[in-house]
Design brief:
The protein has 163 residues and is α+β, with helices and mostly antiparallel strands. The protein contains five helices and four strands.
Length: 163
Amino acid sequence: MKIQNIMTTNVASCSPDTNLAAAAGLLWDYDCGWLPVADGEGKVIGVVTDRDLCMAVATKNRLASEIPVREVMTGAVHACHPNDDVKSAIKTMRNEKVLRLPVVNDEGRLQGVISMNDIMIQTESGKSGLSCEEVLNARNVIGEHLFPRKGAEEQPARRSARA
C-alpha cells in the first residue's frame, strides 16, 4: 500500500517564527500532537510536538507567546514521499523512534502526514500489507524509554478504577 492512499492531507504546519501559543492553538484546532515546521517556501525544516511546547513553557520561565518555535523544534526531519510503500514508512518510524512522518514531495514541500495510528487502522482492516505483529513490534520499539525506569519493581500495583 502506498503512503498517498492513507496519509492525512489536511495538515497544519507552522513557521520557525510562530510562537508557542499560536502553535498550541493549531494543535488544538487540528486535534493533533505534532506540527511540521516549514520555511517560507513550504519546505519542511523541522517538527514540534505538544511535549516540546509543554517542556519549553515549564522550563524557560517565559510566556508561550514569547517563545518562537525555532527554540524548541527538532531540526532533524525524517520524512517519506507519497509514492513510498507503507512498509518503508514503518521502518523509518521504528528506526528513528517517531510516531509520525511528514509526507513531502521531491522538493521537500509538505504534502501530508502519516502516523502510526493511520498504519494501525489499515493493518487492522488488512489493507496495509503488514502483519499486526510487525506493527505492534514497531510501536513497542518506538515507545521504549531512553533511560531505565528506577524503582519500577518497587511501585505498588495500580488498583482498578472499579475497586
